[in-house]
Design brief:
With 92 residues, the chain is of the alpha+beta class. It has three helices and five strands. It has one domain: Ubiquitin-like (UB roll), CATH 3.10.20. It has a five-stranded mixed beta sheet with strand order 2-1-5-3-4. The longest helix is centred in the middle third of the chain and has 9 residues.
């Protein structure tokens, strides 16, 4: 069975700092699909958000959180999750 969008299932995506500038927004609502991971979510956003943002997320070091818990690219997502993409932090 192919991955399917499940009704009005959504994931809230948040962007911070430089990422919000590249996205031209600080949030985005994405359709949730069964068996979705953060990496699949990024692939789904390709073509829907500015290419500069997608390239930054794919090729630069960004941190990810799922429901305010640090996560990895291959972590599974659930309907109504809140995903945050954060640029690398620096300082002391």
């Amino acid at each position: 069975m192919a991955n399917q969008v499940t009704g009005n299932a959504m994931i809230k995506v948040l962007f911070f700092a430089r990422l919000a500038e590249l996205a031209h927004t600080d949030s985005y609502n994405a359709d949730y699909r069964d068996a979705m991971t953060v990496r699949v979510l990024l692939d789904d956003m390709d073509g829907k958000l500015p290419q500069a943002l997608i390239d930054y997320l794919k090729y630069d070091v960004s941190m990810i959180s799922i429901n305010k818990v640090m996560a990895d690219w291959d972590d599974s997502l659930e309907d109504s999750d809140e995903i945050a993409f954060l640029p690398p932090f620096s300082g002391g």
